[in-house]
Amino acid sequence: MITPVLPTYSRAPLHFVKGEGSWLTEADGRRFLDMGAGIAVTLLGHCHPTLVQALTDQANAVWHVSNLYEIPQQEALAQKLVDASFADTVFFTNSGTESCELVLKMARKYWHDKGQTDRIEIVTITGAFHGRSTGAIAAAGADKLTEGFGPLMPGFTHVAWGDHEALKAAITDKTAAVIVEPIQGEGGIRPLPDVCLKGLRDLCDTTDALLILDEVQCGMGRTGRLFAHEWAGISPDIMMVAKGIGGGFPLGAVLATEEAAAGMTKGTHGSTYGGNPLACAVGCAVMDTVTEDGFLDHVTGVAGRLRQGLEALVASHPDVFSEVRGTGLMLGLVCVTPVGDVVQAAYDAQLITIPAAENTLRLLPALTLSDDEASEALSRLEQVAQAIEKAKP
Predict the structure, then answer these.
(1) Residue 353 and residue 343 in contact, taking contact as beta carbons nearer than 8 Å
(2) Which H, E and C letters describe 146-193, residue by residue?
(3) In a domain? residue 106
(4) pTM for this entry
(5) pLDDT tens, position by position, 135-191
(6) Which residues pair with 175 in a beta bridge?
(7) 374-390 b/e (C-beta count within 10 Å ≥ 16 → b)
(8) Mean of the pLDDT values across residues 113-122?
(9) Residue 111 φ then ψ, to 5°
(10) Residue 299 sits in which domain range?
(11) Does 227 share its domain with 368?
(12) Looking at 267, 290, 313, which one is the last position of a domain?
């Protein structure tokens, strides 16, 4: 018999009733150290006082008016994003999936308006994850996402991760854009090397294809820079953002240059909830906090200490872990043991982690993680490794 909640998730039997910073309290009173942050969403931890205040103040004013009217909070957040990035303009959504749908439309409309109506192909990378809509799963192309949902949206070319020659060959005079995650999240915490990102920017410049970056998971300070592509010293034409931008409140955005967004005129796109006063009030508070002097320095510092500890953990337990991947506070432990077993052992140690592809355990904590909390996470991962080793025959 089907459950009242559509059973599309395999949920852990945990019922969290309170959160504070990097900690979650289960209904039975147990406290869990949260190293998943709602899959990189609760950027500033649970119930951050600045975000609570921003949401409360806005909730006592106006919640929703629709995009038929000017929204001051939306204009303020857009200006903050433009001032801090490559972008000239921003469209607000409710999620990364919605952001993906817009970037696909924006890229194709760009070439349509230039009279090149056959320039519709979009090149993507295997292992990518761009959301769960029909457009987003067609972009990713993986069987686990697409099986049973055909016919899929046409016009995508999938190139194997790391195959530079295939990528060059895939970009033709029919290519509208290339979409890539600077760090694949669901794909197993696979960073695209800076030299490759620079090369991709050069390739797009040479062929006039638009470069679209998906920074839904790796953006908003998670790598120690506001956006991950900044490490490579390049800029995209269009970028997807979501997850951490709302600090736990549903919010996403598409950032674009004036040139790339030129085709998106009145009536070409819309959203009922996207960029409403509540979401954008929280988003403004997130941006103000993340861009404060010293905030990203803290992220880099605590991330360095956490990574050092993870490298030591791998060296001490080679039968459990084999490699550390990632940048900043977007880290992955490649597991020798099935990652599902590691996630379960972490639950037993009252530690929240997230599984990913390539048998990788993701660590995506709040950017406010303290040194003491990082040390505690390492201590609990040590317990996890010992428990797995003890259970082996």
Answers:
(1) yes
(2) HCCCCCCCCCEEEECCCCHHHHHHHCCCCEEEEEECCEECCCCCEECC
(3) yes
(4) 0.96
(5) 999 999 999 999 999 999 999 999 999 898 999 999 999 999 999 999 999 999 999
(6) 121
(7) bebbbebbbbbbebbee
(8) 97
(9) -80, -35
(10) 16-34+293-391
(11) no
(12) 290
